Recover the amino acids of this structure.
């Protein structure tokens, strides 16, 4: 069995063969998360990038440049014109082949992939195995900063790949498969950390983001199919995935895309937005 969209992934060996070619642009998308006073604090991964990154790779600042910095929520999608301007400022044109990885967790690479996919870019790949696989293969890294020349990116939005709160509420009464990509304790509301209120969106199922990965490689197609279909994600007509802030959810959603399910969206505000209103119920425990 093969991935339906194997072109969404690239191996370190495949990347090494095209690294430096015209139109091939590699980016580190790192963000570091710290728990501070019971909340997640995001820090740009720029310093880690400057210390070591894949040779010739640029850096995408998902916090400052590819998020709505005016939003009360972290990491939310900016307006399309703001996002497309940021994409062009990063040096990405519509014609480029874009390779994404992270010096931190792979979820930041899939978040950047999801943003580019939303903006209408059609040639984006995630480095399977992340930078660890690249380094384990003995492939070249460097320090310092590499910047691509600013260019113009013309956005054609794929608006259906992000969901808002209303879409989530509607989906729960319309047989949409709604998936929580957080850890089991966060889903059940039993852990020390939670998003202001404990529990999960009523009716949503659990598939922790770690369940689609093996050491930052996506599971092989057979195993990935089994993991996703354990919650009916591939057979459902529509899937909405959420997490704490729309980042980890992109791993589960990307996995669906890999296996050919195109009607999948990410709840951008996720739990950070859902919990803001006491009128939105939460369910505790293992049951939906």
């Amino acid at each position: 069995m093969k991935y339906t969209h194997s072109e969404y992934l690239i191996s370190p060996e495949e990347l090494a063969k095209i690294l430096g070619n015209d139109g091939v642009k590699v980016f580190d998308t790192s963000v570091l998360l710290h728990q501070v006073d019971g909340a997640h604090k995001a820090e740009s991964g720029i310093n880690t990038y400057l210390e070591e990154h894949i040779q010739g790779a640029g850096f995408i600042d998902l916090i400052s440049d590819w998020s709505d910095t005016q939003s009360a929520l972290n990491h939310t999608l900016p307006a399309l014109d703001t996002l497309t301007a940021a994409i062009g400022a990063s040096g990405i044109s519509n014609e480029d082949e874009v390779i994404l990885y992270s010096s931190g967790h792979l979820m930041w690479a899939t978040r950047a992939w999801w943003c580019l996919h939303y903006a209408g870019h059609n040639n984006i790949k995630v480095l399977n195995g992340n930078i660890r696989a690249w380094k384990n293969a003995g492939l070249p890294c460097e320090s310092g900063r590499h910047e691509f020349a600013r260019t113009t990116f013309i956005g054609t939005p794929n608006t259906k790949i992000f969901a808002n709160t209303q879409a989530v509420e509607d989906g729960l009464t319309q047989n949409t498969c709604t998936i929580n990509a957080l850890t089991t304790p966060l889903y059940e509301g039993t852990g020390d950390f939670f998003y202001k209120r404990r529990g999960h969106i009523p009716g949503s199922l659990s598939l922790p983001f770690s369940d689609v990965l093996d050491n930052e490689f996506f599971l092989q197609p057979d195993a990935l199919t089994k993991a996703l279909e354990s919650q009916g994600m591939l057979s459902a007509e529509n899937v909405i995935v959420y997490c704490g802030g729309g980042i980890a959810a992109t791993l589960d959603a990307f996995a669906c895309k890999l296996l050919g399910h195109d009607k999948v969206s990410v709840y951008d505000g996720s739990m950070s937005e859902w919990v803001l209103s006491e009128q939105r119920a939460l369910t505790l425990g293992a049951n939906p």
